[in-house]
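Lecture 7 notes: from sequence to structure.

We start with a single chain of 462 residues. Read the sequence below before looking at the structure.
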Amino acid sequence: MQSSVAYAEPPGVELDPDAEPSSSNGSWMPSGLLEWFAIGQTALPALLVLPGTQPLRFAIRAGAFVVSLAALGYWWAKGRQRVPVAHPASRWLMVVVAILGVMIAHPDTETLSAGLGQTALYVAVFAPLFWVPAFVTDRRTLIRVLVILLVCNGINSIVGVLQVYDPARWMPKEFSSTYMLSKDLMSTAAYMGPNGRLIIRPPGLYDTPGAVCGAGTVAALLGVIFCLEKMAWWKRILALGLAGAGLAAIYLSQVRSSLMVALGMLAVYTALLIIQQQKARAVALLGLTGGLAVGALVLATVLGGASIQNRFSTVVQGNPAELYYKSRGNQVQAVVNNQLWDYPFGAGLARWGVMSGYLGTSPAKQLSAEVQPHAWILDGGILLLLAYGLALVSTVMWEVKLVLRLPDPDDRLWAAAIVAANVGTLALVFTFVPFATQIGVQFWFLEGLLHGAMTMKLQRWS
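Now the structure, written as tokens:
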């Protein structure tokens, strides 16, 4: 069946007739690969909250990535349908695959399974950029998926707040073995609450203390954005409530970098609104953000005690650059001063992270990587660092072009929303290893949605 098009197409361009149609019947029920994939990114890890699932932890964690690879395989089997304009990052990601393929033969890649596993992880993370655009036909599809992401991350955040309010009922019975087997690590995952009560940083729908922060940042951004849309008043209040839950969950986790990322994402979206002459919307967004930030802090302080305010007051009172250097900046400096020169051609695959522990790398050869540039250097040296870096830079440039050049102002608003969300992930590159986790999957998933929904609306760019 031919897909209908609600906008003008560039001359000679046709939609793929086998592309999955968007949900146009107004049903609130999820449908189609994209919407179920978005749900699965929250639902699959949430299985770890159930008692007795820790022995299956690797399989459950791998499930979210396997689904991404399976979707890539389905897209490939359907004939690799593409939008008319290739995403500029795709060529650099192909270079990434080529570098990893060579690194499988690196003398310090201990086993073939380790090399293949680490390569598969990389491909699973960026695979959505290739297969998602084939299943997006219009803006409505994009918006429906963003609604699902708001609801899933909002529920995740609410569970995080409830885990502090009533831990006996809502806190997982089992945490990741990484924490359960280390008393020192577990002690860093707790803080003193009201009346001397020990509070574990809420994991949300996961098994790692503090893991709810990722969901909190997404819920905060999308909740505020949807609250400004023209829809029923109760939907706007619900969106605002989910945004507030996201910020409250971040406060209760006491992860200052996540708060800065959330506020930074909202600031980027505000700046993009101003560039588009959406000044009234920008003012409303700033007002909502300020009110939510204060309200969520009050709620978190009631539940988590004075230590919440003490923790986050250092962001305002202290030197942000000094705080960053003490937490992660020193590791970024070590990458430039040491690792870049120690491993210019990589250290072999699967020598750090999850794959090193599960795929046969001996403990004596295992390394650690706390920031993304370090991980890239270990896996592929300078070449991998440059290739993946260029993929991200070209993505940002492409997104900016969309925001500035899309003819429909509503399209530009939704493009700006995804740009703001992805900027948050880019900020994590220097504090975390997002492109080896589901956060990276979300980045490329959102980019694939944007590319598929909006690129058809522009003439081919040379």
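The first helix runs from residue 32 to 46. Keep this in mind for problem set 3.
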